[in-house]
Specification:
A: MetI-like fold, 15 helices, 2 strands, disordered N terminus, B: alpha/beta, D-Maltodextrin-Binding Protein, domain 2, 2 domains, five-stranded mixed sheet, globular, cell membrane (chain A), Sugar ABC transporter permease (chain A), transmembrane (chain A), UgpAE/MalFG_permease (chain A)
């Protein structure tokens, strides 16, 4: 999903002119030609490596003993691997706690900016969006500094005011700290998607509602939010996928707090360490695949449930 | 969350690509020249000299700044030879690239700088050339016995030692004096007393970092422990519950429990600040430690530092340990092993080159000749109040227990430390339990990798 595409989503209606079959054929050919580069990239950079890791995941290479075919053994191991399951538990917590907070904030900001009651709304839109433009590597380094116990401004402020500040990089607080970083990074991104969707709504409906005496809150709750449900679902699905694959934040936090993060804080970090520290590429491939399946199942279930509910509500 | 998705996709893709490289590598490795037994063919000095007269280019991966100077010297001596010195990253970064290149069957350098503790992780799958065939055994007497045993792994000689890291106690004389510690602690008992006195002044005598397995293993080494063993084939021993290791562990447990030793991680920003602002009065480190002090944050403390030997377990039988250090190895598959051999030997044994290593690249010398060079021992360092600090490190080097071995899976051992023993240090929990967990994790992993664990 490209942000720019969403922002400039054409409101122009599609031309429905009937065409001759010859020109259609030419058009089709041109269309295929245009999508070819994408398909080449897709096959070379996504499908082939994906197929290859599926293949790898069925083998086991040992430092002593070499390569052997093990079938689904790697997957069975993953199923009962406490490190993998703990990591999965952690990202599930993020999904249940952080994602709702982040999307609620995104929606709130989008509605506020869309309400036209805000002065300098362009500035706020940009300010909320800017964190997304900061590479997550830099974002995490920055937050690592902010969280730091001895030199971090949060701890220093607490010390100056005589207030106790928790060690934000400790075992108890690390997950919260990471969730905070992710929220900060992606609130603006989701807000832009929702805001763009709000902008495409026909204004006549709001006017009619206002004439009937509906206030701004009523309009937002009963008209705007239901109307942008598809965009909300989109942000939710993106967030689910992103959450299960959290990697950069814990990976960088490892440098600051190696004893808290360890090798398997999230499933993706675990897969990375298995491949590059433990030299267990095959098991890492199996984990990555397993994780992919989990993501698909969860995304599909969420999407289906919401769509079914939508249909019920409409019917 | 577009960025996160694509970046994570990339991770997955990279993983898969790495896997691709890995597998093609296996195929190439099995059939390629890599597995040929080098010991079948012997080379003479004439062969080496003849090879040096042909136009040849060799590549050396390493991360010491300034080695280009030695390469230039070598090229002046042998005008037909070109040495490409490439820095592909430090330590683990280089190893990851080296492993990938070796598995891919192409792109690997002729020579690589490898730390002693990681040498076995390359010899276990036959990635390095046994230098015995080139006559490397003749170099044995040029190095201290313990150091030579770091590259002579019994089954073969896998490199030339470049430098060493004999350990010592770098301490702040001003803080020691203020606390009434007039002489640096000679034993670990005295160390505990000194720690208590220094704690009263507000400083810690030191920190025991939970993120530095290398240093902790150095303490084990000094106590005479032999926690690891590898037969060069498929059998390893993991002995982290030996009495020597437990002795070290219990000592630190005591110091930590009493709050006399800090447990903050090292090489972090706050650690560097702690070193500079007097939070720590000592740093028990290796001969490369001073490099981190005099250039950088601690520059303002110049003149107040001194170097003393490590505290001893038995003052009548002084012992020391090594932390770090590396050598130059030849990578299997090198098209020019003779030239590579000549360069590795020149770099680490030529008097001009070793003098450069000692004085320009600030390394503790590996060769006995350079160690015994009068201007090395008598070199005074203003940062340490004009003390002749090399003498302390030379004594330390002479007291290092020989025959200390490593496992061919040290990458895992080091990372696992952070989650077990190191975590116990950081969390202030029971170190013995951390030790048991560490041992268990290593044995489990080694078994998965097909090793026989004794």
């Amino acid at each position: 999903m490209d942000v720019m595409a969403v922002l400039s989503a054409p409101s122009a209606s599609r031309a429905a002119k009937p065409r001759t079959s010859a020109s259609k054929r030419v058009q089709n050919r041109a269309a295929y030609l245009f999508v070819t580069p994408f398909f080449i990239a897709l096959i070379a950079l996504v499908l082939l490596p994906l197929g290859y890791s599926a293949y790898l995941s069925l083998y086991r290479e040992q430092i002593v003993g070499g390569v052997s075919f093990v079938g689904l053994e790697n997957y069975i191991t993953a199923f009962s691997d406490p490190k993998f399951l703990e990591g999965l538990g952690r990202v599930t917590t993020i999904l249940l706690v952080q994602v709702p907070i982040m999307l609620a904030l995104s929606l709130l900001f989008a509605l506020i900016i869309d309400s036209d009651r805000l002065r300098a709304s362009k500035f706020f839109r940009l300010a909320i969006f800017v964190p997304y433009a900061v590479p997550s590597v830099i974002a995490t380094l920055m937050w690592g500094y902010l969280y730091g116990g001895e030199y971090g401004p949060i701890a220093q402020l607490g010390a100056t005011l005589g207030l106790p500040t928790p060690d934000l990089l400790s075992q108890e607080w690390m997950l919260t700290s990471i969730m905070n970083i992710i929220t900060w990074e992606f609130v603006g991104y989701n807000m832009i998607i929702l805001y763009a969707s709000l902008r495409t709504l026909p204004t006549e409906v709001f006017e009619a509602a206002r004439m009937d005496g509906a206030g701004a809150f009523r309009v937002a709750w009963s008209i705007k939010i239901p109307a942008i449900r598809p965009a909300l679902l989109l942000t939710l699905i993106f967030s689910i996928i992103g959450t299960f694959q959290v990697f950069n934040e814990p990976s960088l936090m490892y440098k600051i707090a190696p004893n808290v993060i360890g090798a398997s804080y999230t499933p993706n970090l675990y897969a990375y360490n298995l491949a590059f520290v433990n030299q267990q590429v095959n098991y890492a491939a199996a984990l990555a695949f397993f994780l992919g399946i989990v993501i698909m199942v969860v995304s599909f279930t969420v999407q289906n449930t919401i769509e079914r509910r939508n249909q019920k509500a409409m019917g | 969350m577009k960025n996160s998705i694509s970046s994570r996709m990339r991770t997955l893709g990279a993983l898969a690509l790495a896997g691709t490289l890995a597998l093609t590598g296996c195929a190439a490795g099995a059939a390629g020249p890599g597995n040929g037994s080098a010991s079948e063919q012997k080379y003479t000095e004439e062969d080496i000299q003849a090879a040096l007269k042909k136009p040849t280019t060799i590549t050396y991966w390493q991360w010491t700044p300034g080695i280009e100077k030695q390469a230039k010297l070598f090229q002046e001596k042998y005008p037909e030879i070109t040495v490409n010195v490439v820095n592909v990253g430090q330590g683990p970064d280089e190893y990851a690239k080296l492993r990938t290149a070796i598995k891919a069957g192409k792109g690997a350098p002729d020579l690589a700088m490898i730390e002693y503790q990681f040498l076995d992780s390359f010899t276990v799958n036959g990635s390095l050339v046994d230098l015995t065939a080139f006559g490397a055994a003749e170099s044995k007497d040029k190095y201290p016995e313990w150091l030579w045993s770091q590259v002579d792994r019994g089954k073969g000689i896998y490199g030339f030692p470049s430098n060493a890291g004999p350990m010592a106690n770098l301490y702040r004389k001003d803080i020691y004096d203020a606390a009434g510690v007039t002489t640096p602690p000679a034993t670990w008992t005295e160390f505990a007393d000194a720690a208590a006195k220094i704690r009263e002044t507000g400083s810690y005598i030191m920190t025991l970092p939970g993120n530095n397995a290398g240093q902790t293993i150095g303490y084990f080494w000094q106590a005479g422990a032999k926690p690891f063993g590898f037969d060069g084939d498929k059998t390893i021993t993991v002995n982290l519950d030996s009495p020597e290791v437990q002795k070290v562990t219990d000592n630190f447990q005591d110091l930590l429990d009493k709050g006399l030793v800090d447990n903050s991680n090292d090489f972090t920003d706050s650690w560097f600040q702690g070193i500079a602002n007097g939070k720590y009065a000592s740093w028990l480190t290796a001969a490369w430690g001073p490099v981190f002090l005099d250039s950088g944050t601690a520059a303002n403390t110049a003149g107040s530092w001194r170097v003393a030997p490590l505290p001893q377990w038995d003052a009548s039988k002084p012992r020391s340990a090594n932390w770090g250090g590396n050598g130059t190895s030849i990578v299997k598959g090198s098209a020019n092993p003779l030239v590579a051999y000549a360069f590795a030997r020149f770099l680490n044994e030529d008097p001009v080159s070793t003098k450069m290593l000692a004085f320009e690249q600030s390394q503790f010398p590996a060769t006995i000749a350079q160690q015994e060079a009068p201007d090395f021992a008598s070199n005074t360092v203003p940062f340490f109040g004009d003390q002749e600090i090399n003498r302390v490190f030379l004594d330390s080097s002479a007291q290092i227990d020989t025959g200390f071995q490593w496992l061919p899976i040290m990458d895992f051992v080091f990372q696992s430390y952070n989650e077990t023993y190191g975590k116990a240090i950081a969390d202030g929990t029971n170190l013995r339990a951390g030790l048991t967990a560490w041992q268990k994790a290593i044995v489990e992993y080694a078994t998965t990798q097909g090793f026989t664990v004794k």
